[in-house]
Amino acid sequence: MMKLSNIYQLVVSAFADFKRDKVRTGLTSLGIMIGVLSVVLLIALGLGLKNYIEDQFESLGANLVMVLPGSGFSGGNGPAGLAGGAEFDEKDVRTLQKLSNIKYTVPIYIHSSLISTADTEKTGNIMGANEDIFSLINIKLQTGEIWTKADVDKKTKVVVLGHTIASDLYGNANDALGKTIRVGGLRVKVIGVAKKMGNQERDGAAFIPYTTTFGSLNPKKTFFAIYLGVASQESVSGVKDEVEKTLLKRYEKDKFSVTEQAEILSSINQIFAIINLVLIAIGSISLIVGGIGIMNIMYATVTERTGEVGIRRAMGATKRDILLQFLTESTMLSLFGGIVGLVLASIIVSIARHWFPMAINLFAVILAIGVSSGIGIFFGVFPAKKAADLSPMEAIRYE
Predict the structure, then answer these.
(1) All structural domains of the chain with their residue ranges
(2) Distance (Å, rounded) from C-alpha 62 to C-alpha 57?
(3) pTM value?
């Protein structure tokens, strides 16, 4: 077993060699630094995207059941299953409203379109729903009021703007109140502006009564989905079964899906586990390139220091001593690059998380340090072994 004093001497010797050519030391570590930076940032990006989507669902509350066309988000072809499924209408909404243990029944119509004033236009989501949408997704008003069931019944042309879209249109979100704007070609009056929710899609949405969309926006009078707010978590399973039995009277089984938030999040987590593996594989290419760079530099170093190796061997250094010397240098070069890459990635993530929920987890840290050290050892073995195998007399005579 190696003594601590021996390890210390190896580290001191490695630092002394690095000081001889600081530029070469920096450039050698650069490849590993870029590789670690890439891997950690890609993992952080994947985690951020996962966190973002989870936040969207969690903001809807735990007792949410979603009725979606096709296979929805679970099973089948994933989100692609939304295409070609059932086209829900008001009849479905009225039918589901009669079921027990359902607190809110909210038809959802979503359409991306221009939202404009006389001077400005922005792209946002038009969200047609009934008055329960505000309670279901916990929308709080900053100013004004929400529209009501009477507005839904009368097809009133009113809108509640998300905070971001209101700010984009008027500079100050509160200035939007009372103004008439165009939403997908419809002239509507702003009667309320929502508080910032931290949800990009909802903060950029225009909420209008779903009946108001009937016509130019939604001539077929159909819905993207129906959201059900269940009275309690214990009732979710029973409501799902009851909803499915009810809809099977009108649609074939593969034309719709009834799912709860937990199932969707489980599917998303499975998808992101695969995405993270792909991202890590992509980033690892940079690590391999950096490792090859270290191997090349260490081979060149062995050639440059052949005479030094011969003198050390002549003075009693064993093959193991020489092997450990060069292996320590390559490992330290790689580890230094890994640590610098990890620090830079942490700085970038800490800045970026103000706009996007990127995150660095323990796995990313262990991967960065472990892989960078492993690459130094793996790619350092070959040049180190070459140095150790040099004949002392031939090494001393080498010019």
Answers:
(1) 4-55+268-397, 87-250
(2) 9
(3) 0.58
